[in-house]
Every structure is written in C-alpha cells, then in structure tokens.
Specification:
- By secondary structure, the protein is α/β, with parallel strands linked by helices.
- A five-stranded mixed β-sheet has the order 1-2-3-4-5, covered by helices on one side.
C-alpha cells in the first residue's frame, strides 16, 4: 500500500492511497483545478482514481469533491452528514 499527500491544512486536505489495483483519494479539500495540479506533480491522472472517500464534511476536506466527481464520473463514499 502506498500513500501520497496532496496537502494537509486549513486550506485543504487530500491523500492518495494506492493498493494493488485500487487508487482512492481520501478527502478533496482543494478546488478541482488545484487537485489536478497537485496530482500531476505526483504523476497521477484524475481518471486513474477509482473513488473518493470523504472523512467528514468540513470544507477543507470536501470543497472539491462534487466538481471532481462530476468531471471524472467518480463515486464518492461518505457518511450521511
């Protein structure tokens, strides 16, 4: 299993988690364009994602979720908030 942080702080949070054949984005607190830029720095394409997992509904954890999900037809997993 591999982990890579896109960033962590009050301005946004996001972590990539990769196992053998699955790539998850845990939280997406950055705007979609910023998320794409940060992923590109790690040589990861958004269309490689299998899903996004949102840990909780604070803006710094979910600000870009809807836009990224819509743009790349990604499922989103989260609790009922």
């Amino acid at each position: 299993m591999h982990f890579a942080s896109l960033g962590s702080g009050s301005q946004g949070n996001g972590t990539l988690v990769r196992s053998d054949d699955t790539l998850l984005l845990v939280d997406c607190g950055f705007p979609r364009k910023e998320t794409e830029i940060r992923m590109e720095r790690l040589d990861v394409e958004p269309h490689d994602l299998d899903a996004t997992l949102v840990t909780h509904e604070h803006g710094d954890h979910c600000a870009g979720v809807a836009s990224l999900s819509k743009a790349y037809d990604l499922p989103v997993y989260l609790s009922h908030g």
